Amino acid sequence: MAEENASVVLYAKGDLRIENRPIPEPGPNDVLLQMHSVGICGSDVHYWQHGRIGDFVLKKPMVLGHEAAGRVVKVGSAVTHLKPGDRVAIEPGVPRDMDEFFKRGQYNLSPTIFFCATPPDDGNLCRYYTHNANFCYKLPDNITFEEGALIEPLSVGIHACRRAGVTLGSTVLICGAGPIGLVSLIVAKAMGASKVIITDLFAERLAMAKELGADFQLTVKKEDGAQVLAKKVKEILGTQPQITIECTGVESCIQTALYATCSGGVVLLVGLGAEMTTVPLVNAAVREVDIRGVFRYCNTYPMAIAMLSSGKVNVKPLVTHRFPLEQAGQAFETTRQGLGIKVMLKCDKNDQNP
Predict the structure, then answer these.
(1) Residue 295 in contact with residue 268, Cβ under 8 Å?
(2) Cross-strand bridge partners of residue 181
């Protein structure tokens, strides 16, 4: 084992460094992983640019990264289901307490949950990392490490579509064709949505959405009015969508989502924007449009692995850029500029393959 654990550490707003850290020892219920592929998320970039997301504030240096897959190199004394050499996807949220949320199966809502790269918890954008073995999922041979890393964003899409009630024959509007809008699209189609329309400011993102199975694409402009866009959606779709999945967090998009959704339908808020947002609440209320939120995901990894392994979903086209770990700065800058879709960092010097 190379005695070197290069790690991408955020010291403060705008201060991103690569430093060598000790290789950690796994506890009884943990595994030591040699990291292979780690995707950069918008949240990683947000912490780098702003030093905080909402109430989560960076107060001490933190390793970034939470979309990850790697190889087991050592197992803790109590671990029986994994062995060295196993390839695994890492679910970054691990509940610390068996509280009411945990018992209800909503461990993602537990206030004390550990979550990679959310202050003060370190992430896994490094060469070696330890994680709770129960939240490491063995990958079948036909799933690559990069697909394993993409299970994290894919999980957001699964949780969103479950919460929204996407099923056979659903008509769905997705606002925003960034990584989360695109995984929501992939999952909605896999779950049986008959028609999906997706909106974005950028034509190249909508071209990717079309490739991934969107039935209709609508290019929007910043100055477009919410009610005008809602009308356009209805004209293109031929009907009002039963479900809208809002992935931007932008006030005008949330307004469009509420106006566009059919009476008795569901608006699912995935994107996070300003804490206070002005929306046509009465319009939604009198039409019995349900407004639902999501916070990350729970109980999604087994479904995601089954969907990928069976070929039911394909996330490979989402990866548009790859950088070795040593070029993390360049990789983060690429993501910040909004180039491509998903930027992947390769952490294993001897294996840079997908």
Answers:
(1) no
(2) none
Encoded amino acid at 231, one letter: K
Our count of domains for the chain comes to 2
Q: Among residues 170, 330, 326, which one has the least CA distance to residue 261?
A: 170
Structural domain range at position 107: 5-138+315-346
Q: Give the model confidence (pLDDT) of 10-19 as tens digits.
A: 999 999 999 9
Structure tokens given for 105: 């199966």
| pTM, rounded to two decimals | 0.97
Residues in Cβ contact with 240 at an 8 Å cutoff, skipping those fewer than 6 apart: 171, 233, 234, 260, 261, 262, 263, 265
In a shared domain, residues 130 and 189: no
Mark out the alpha helices in 291-354 (DSSP H runs).
301-309, 328-336
Same domain, 280 and 224: yes
Rounded Cα distance between 220 and 260, Å, is: 14
pLDDT digits (tens, 9 = 90+) for 302-321: 999 999 999 999 999 999 99
Q: What is the pLDDT of residue 71?
A: 98
| 253 Rama class: left (phi>0) / alpha (psi -120 to 50) / beta | alpha
What CATH number should be reported for the domain holding residue 39? 3.90.180.10
Helices 42-50, 328-336: crossing angle, 10 deg rounding: 100
CA nearest to 5, candidates 128, 111, 112, 148: 128
